[in-house]
Amino acid sequence: MKSSLEKKGLPRRVKATAGWLVICLSVYVLSTGPVAWATNDGLHPRYLPEAVHVIYLPLTPLMQIEWLHQAFYFYTVIIWGGWPAGYTTL
């Protein structure tokens, strides 16, 4: 029999879905670094289709927030070496 404390929490399915959502969104945002590197490294014509820009289009409005823009710049340009072509991914 379940205790009354276990019944008050969120269902297990909701917790699992929220966890997977956080993981998938994190991987999506962090994947901009390798894409910036690949775009700048000359691999773009062979391995990255033009449609790759559409995939990252939902992140564009976030670049209006200055600290997010600076964090994105640091991640894609400084860490992954995505300047000049890779930085323009967004």
Describe the structure.
The mean pLDDT is 78. Helix content is 61%, strand content 0%. By secondary structure, the chain is an all-alpha fold. It is built from six helices and no strands.
- Regions with pLDDT < 50 over 5+ consecutive residues? none
The helix fraction, in percent, is 55-70%
- The radius of gyration over CA amounts to 18 Å
**Count of helical segments?**
6
Shape by Cα distribution: elongated
Please outline the major beta sheet.
none
β-sheet strand percentage: under 5%
Oligomer: single chain
Structural class: mainly alpha
Give the H and E element order. Answer: HHHHHH
Strand segment tally: 0
Distance between the termini: 53 Å
Return the average pLDDT rounded to an integer: 78
Q: Notable features of this structure?
A:
61% helix; 6 helices; mainly alpha; 90 residues
Q: Could you give a quick summary of the protein structure above?
A:
With 90 residues, the protein is an all-alpha fold. Helix content is 61%, strand content 0%.
